Amino acid sequence: MRVALATEAAPGRPNEDFVAVSADAAVLLDGAGTPAGSESGCSHGVAWFARTLGSSLLAAMTQKHETLPELLASEIKAVAGLHEDTCDLTHPGSPSATVVMLRRTDDALEWLVLADSGLVLDAGDTAAPMVICDDREAQVGARYRSAMDALDSGSPEHQAAHRDYVEALRAHRNRDGGFWVAATDPLAADQALTGTVPRESVRTAVLLSDGASRLVDRFHLATWRQALDLLDQEGPEALISRVRAAEYSDPTGSRWPRGKTFDDATVVTLSLP
């Protein structure tokens, strides 16, 4: 298996994405940042949470034989145990993250997607690639984002509206009828999208945080086929470079309204023999 990956923090911020790959498994997490002025109840922070959960998930996928939801539930519980004595895990802003897991067996690829990071599976022929993304957060968020989207990104007013937007979403996090992320509740793992495909049917698998997939699904500057061709020809750094160019071209969000002018961007491409 040939692996190419790149990750880049949003300018001026720590990278809250995490990605790791072994011979037969890959995991990507995108930590949900806490806007300035909001509390989380945790002294460790989002980057710590994504890094800690992500590394334990990769180890579990390579050492244990449980299903991916079972592994995710177990590791969410284990990470919660690491800071339940020092942090308020009942706080609605406790660190959380999206999760993409991919595991290769002798004859299949097993996958799990929780929240809005993406997985693309490509057969390498004329068929459209299989794109998996859990859009429940976006569906909930559409109810609350109009005030934020009407303001110039980066302005004090936009920052305040973004904080209000994030705090409104917290009331729907890990709730029936809302959306689900990896945080403190192991039951969130049961809500993940999961599936299995024959190993021989996939030539390339791509895991992306939403800061990277926005080239396609928010900015609409490429189709998924064009994005896959770019990754094949120039690599993950080229895709992230195009995302950054688009972000810099629209600093106020007038063309593409968004909560974050810039976002952490992570891509890993797995070319399967």
TrEMBL record:
Pfam families: PP2C_2. It comes from the Bacteria. Transmembrane segments: none annotated. Residues 12-235 form the PPM-type phosphatase domain. This is Protein phosphatase 2C. It comes from Nonomuraea wenchangensis. The lineage of its organism: Bacteria, Bacillati, Actinomycetota, Actinomycetes, Streptosporangiales.
